[in-house]
Structures are given as C-alpha cells and as structure tokens.
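(Fold this chain)
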Amino acid sequence: MDSTEFVYVTYISTTPERVWSAITDPEITRRYWQNVNISDWKPGSRWEHRDHDKLGTLRMAGKVVESDPPRRMVWTWGRPADGDKEDKHSRVTFDIEKVESGVVRLTVTHDRLDADPEMRKSISDGWPKVLSSLKTMLESGQPLPTLW
C-alpha cells in the first residue's frame, strides 16, 4: 500500500446481498455510519453522503463509476467544495466476495488520495470505525456506539 491508497479488509458473517444493502440503503447506513448514502446506484449517477439529521448536510459527493450488485461498487469521493472537479476526487471501491457459506470478505480500497492529501489522514481513521460498526451490526443486529 502506498500513500495514495488505503485498503481495509474484513470478514463478516453474512451474505453478499446484506453487505450490498448496508452500503446502498440510506436507512441501513444511517444506523452504522451515522450518515446516509443517497443515489440510484447506476453508473454515471451522482451519489451523496449526507448527515442523517434534519438538515442533511452534504459531507461528500461523487459519481457512481461501477455498480455490479452484490459484488462490486465503485464511486468517486469528493468534498462538496470540489463539486464536479473530478481531478480533486479520490475513488472508493467495495469488493464483496462470498468466501464460504455465510462468510463474506469485504475489501474497501480508497485510492487516488494524492488529489487531497488531508483526506488520507481522515479516512485512515474513519474507514476502520465505519467498517467495524458495519461488521458488528450485520453480525449482531446493533452497530457500535458512536465512535466520532
């Protein structure tokens, strides 16, 4: 792993379909991420990462690059101030693989971080918290307590 990418791998006692829903369904992301992901999840469509409160503050936004349910999702990841400046966006890839009955390997790769060096620091802390909470929720029914 170089300084322009962050990779996180976890094994979850669940199905690929449940992981997919946890990434794409705003009501599920609200539970473990305390934010919602909003899109129609079609390649080329916009996606938004918003606070789940009444204001729904936009935190990140980008474009769906690839959507292959329930195996792979790729989107660009940019700060709201960077809008459609894709050269300022990084990229997030979710690879979801059934490794045996009832066990899924989830690999999240956040790359192209050279466009925003401060983002690497932020996501290096954030992704482990988010993905640990996702794993806990899918396996126990409850996310981790708020970690941020």
